[in-house]
Amino acid sequence: MSKRIDVRNLNVYYGDFLAVEDVTMTIEPCSVTALIGPSGCGKSTFLRTLNRMHEVIPGARVTGAALMDGQNLYGPGVDPVQVRRQIGMVFQRPNPFPTMSIADNVLAGVKLNNRRLGREESQDLVERSLRGANLWNEVKDRLDRPGSSLSGGQQQRLCIARAIAVKPDVVLMDEPCSALDPISTLAIEDLIYELKNDYTIVIVTHNMQQAARVSDKTGFFNIAGTGKPGKLIEYAATDKIFSNPANEQTERYVSGKFG
Ligand SMILES: Nc1ncnc2c1ncn2[C@@H]1O[C@H](COP(=O)(O)OP(=O)(O)O)[C@@H](O)[C@H]1O
Ligand SMILES: [Mg+2]
After folding, report:
1. 161-165 mean pLDDT
2. Superfamily designation of domain 5-254
3. CB of 12 closer than 6 A to ligand 1?
4. Would you kindly state where each structural domain of the chain is located, as residue ranges?
């Protein structure tokens, strides 16, 4: 559980279009890494390369390497499905299966991996995952209700429960709070802070206060103009990025003097 990711000279393409250029960074285990930067600079694209979700788009590919505890995720013979089991993902809009029960939503990923669970094992896993996602107390009396019966913030925590039920090493989150109200956002931020004890967390956020609140390290991506590739401009401890960045572009972005 909780592994290190070493990204080495990663270039990310959509067909001929180089969307993200030459990223090298180490993402530490048991920590939260935030990715910030203006819209279109490639944060989501880069994030999706970390669990090989990028390549499901026709023509999409990468060059370079991403190693998890030393093993290249893009090495020959590596099964992308296995990579996605080890590196889970939570999306911008909560996407529980609406008609499926809360309990079955938690188990959906596990079942997708063809694991057959006994009744007791299932119940255990549902409880453990929902507790891990800070949702158990709110739903324990209505586990058979549909996922869509929950509020947006609860649905997002249900999606986090579903992601951690498969016991991943890393959890990627792409703007997980952008569709949520401020109270639900704080609940997710508290949860992210707790999850880092067990997982490596990488979160894309357009909310700089959020990056400052939840993350240990922050990567600032930027783009020189439309059609140009996004680049990792600066990557450092979060307090350094926000109080004393080394790069002038970072300084302009975090102080709000940007486009
Ligand atoms: N499926 C796709 N096919 C082609 N280009 C894409 C696709 N998704 C994103 N892009 C392009 O890649 C660049 C980075 O986009 P994205 O990763 O979504 O940025 P961000 O998440 O930082 O807003 C943009 O130029 C965008 O238009
Ligand atoms: Mg994005």
Report:
1. 96
2. P-loop containing nucleotide triphosphate hydrolases (3.40.50.300)
3. no
4. 5-254
